[in-house]
Amino acid sequence: MLAVWVGTQADEAFQEAWQSDSGGLLPESRAKVYLSPKLWYLRLTVIQTQDLQFGSVPDAKNRSPELYVKAQLGAQIFKTGKCSISSSSSANPTWNEDLVFVAAEPFEPFLVMSVEDVSAGQSVGHAKIHVPTADRRTDDRAESRSRWFNLVGDEKRPYAGRIHVRICLEGGYHVLDEAAHVTSDVRAAAKQLSKPPIGLLEVGIRGASNLLPVKTKDGTRGTTDAYVVAKYGPKWVRTRTILDRFNPRWNEQYTWDVYDPCTVLTIGVFDNGRYKKDEAGKPGKDARIGKIRIRLATLDTNRVYMNSYALTVIHPSGAKKMGEIELAVRFSCSSLMNILQVYTSPMLPRMHYVKPLGPAQQDILRHTAMRIVLTRLARSEPPMGQEVVQYMIDTDSHVWSMRRSKANWFRVVGCLSRAASFARWLDGIRTWINPSTTVLVHLLLVAIILCPHLVLPTLFMYAFFIVALRFRFRHRLPTNMDPRLSYVDAVGPDELDEEFDGFPSTRSVDQVRQRYDRLRALAGRAQSLLGDVAAQGERVEALLNWRDPRATGIFVVFCLLASLVFYVVPFKCFILCSGFYYLRHPRFRHDMPSLPVNFFRRLPTYSDQIL
């Protein structure tokens, strides 16, 4: 007997019928949809304490306690600043400091607060707050209510005082749980602040080709058990694992609601190593095969992109192409006006601008949120390995890497190359390399002086034609990870080994010393560059602060004479004469620096006062 099943992914029997090439009923090889935990910022405002009862400490009456408040939510611990009080004073220690935590639903049951005595080295007392009962707010207009909690000491002090705090769950923020450059969701935590989706993202994971072997099977030949993970917003999808295939075909389709087109879809390919356990019964780790990112803003709406993308992974030995993945992607939208309206709105919710978090605090909270997502997804069944989640959300993007530093440096150079090209063109004009072009620039300068009202219209019309003509040369296909832009071939083995080294380092002392000396050399160049930039700003300030009386006196006299000259000479005439003087023929120039440049370089800086 032969049975043939024909259907689609939407059929009820599809989940059981497609397992023939994925190891049968192995839980670790099944397809699954995961959801990241819903994250909130929990703000604890420590106001003050009253009636503190200190323990039996020698010389307790003669000392001045130095106190701080420590708060703990799960593995997160934050402390306030220290506050000193006098034993003879009845003043209550006051902090008025905010401590911000990352809370994930379902919430940790209690937030534990304790008042610590630094001078005595012991805790004065502690209190617990039930987190699910905390107030929730969506903006800064309504202040959450403050509450008093009794502090519990040791057995001899059941009442050690009380603490005044304000606690609330901030629903007006978006909790950043991924690297800033790969953000896929910018919605606020509170549901009432969410707007309806503007479109739908459909991704068809068709298959992969020419995958390289990742491990050995039976110790005789190489094999790959590949599966795909796709992430957009809080939704993660994982395809089934196809065992022992170098050209697997998944043919699975998934959809996501899109709320902002300026977001990134991340797709990674991995080798499944968890369905096999070692002698101790522990599952293995999944190996990276490659990753691609697609920015939705680069896609045309309602168009199907069906392409193959190269999978490149970086090893300590260098970059290696592992194969290709074939995808079908479509970003559909029913209203173009909704998308255009999104481009005029802020990127993040309102609370990020009216009550912003500091850069250092935001980095700490981002990495805390990443760890929470790692832990929660690892508890799922089947679990998603931490190495998979870390690779998808770029948890190591902040770690020092010589390769990334070179890539970012040349990105800056690339952005400044346009200005450098314009400066070279302008220098060619003023040195009369092409006399006809210089004459035309003279005529253009005269036209600008005579008809200044046409400058802006002409400028914007010129920009319109330039950008409109470049429409023909736009990228037709979604961009992929670029090995050339990543400079994977421009770094040595030692620099790549440094990138994959853990923190703290596990390399030998000689290797660490060599890398440290290399980093010191680079930091020395950066230090000199910062000093030069600071010196230019200090020279400008030296014109006004009379640090060099003669230089500032010359500048004052110049300002007086300039005011008289500009009062007599029309401004148009000054601009025309200045332009002709700048574009004068080389035979009327000399090779030495100009008078203003000489005067500016002689102004004093604070470099000579640095030890």
Question: How would you concisely characterize the structure shown here?
Answer:
The protein is of the alpha+beta class and 611 residues long. It contains 14 helices and 21 strands.
What does this structure look like?
The chain crosses the membrane at residues 439-469, 554-583. It is a multi-pass membrane protein. It is found in: Membrane. Residues 21-149, 182-309 form the C2 domain. The protein has 611 residues and is an alpha+beta fold. Helix content is 31%, strand content 26%. The protein has helices at 14-17, 336-343, 351-354, 359-378, 386-393, 402-430, 435-450, 455-469, 483-486, 493-500, 509-542, 549-568, 571-582, 595-601; strands at 32-35, 39-50, 66-73, 76-79, 83-84, 94-104, 110-117, 122-130, 135-137, 146-150, 162-170, 199-209, 215-217, 221-223, 226-232, 235-238, 249-258, 264-271, 287-295, 304-315, 318-332. The strands form five sheets. Strands 1-16-15-18-19 form a five-stranded antiparallel beta sheet, with helices on one face. A hairpin with a 3-residue loop joins β13 and β14 (221-223). α4 runs antiparallel to α5. The N and C termini lie far apart (91 Å). The model has no long low-confidence stretch (mean pLDDT 85).
SSE inventory with pairings:
Layout: H1 14-17, E1 32-35, E2 39-50, E3 66-73, E4 76-79, E5 83-84, E6 94-104, E7 110-117, E8 122-130, E9 135-137, E10 146-150, E11 162-170, E12 199-209, E13 215-217, E14 221-223, E15 226-232, E16 235-238, E17 249-258, E18 264-271, E19 287-295, E20 304-315, E21 318-332, H2 336-343, H3 351-354, H4 359-378, H5 386-393, H6 402-430, H7 435-450, H8 455-469, H9 483-486, H10 493-500, H11 509-542, H12 549-568, H13 571-582, H14 595-601
Parallel strand pairs: 9-11
Antiparallel strand pairs: 1-16, 2-6, 2-11, 3-4, 3-5, 3-7, 7-8, 10-11, 12-17, 12-21, 13-14, 15-16, 15-18, 18-19, 20-21
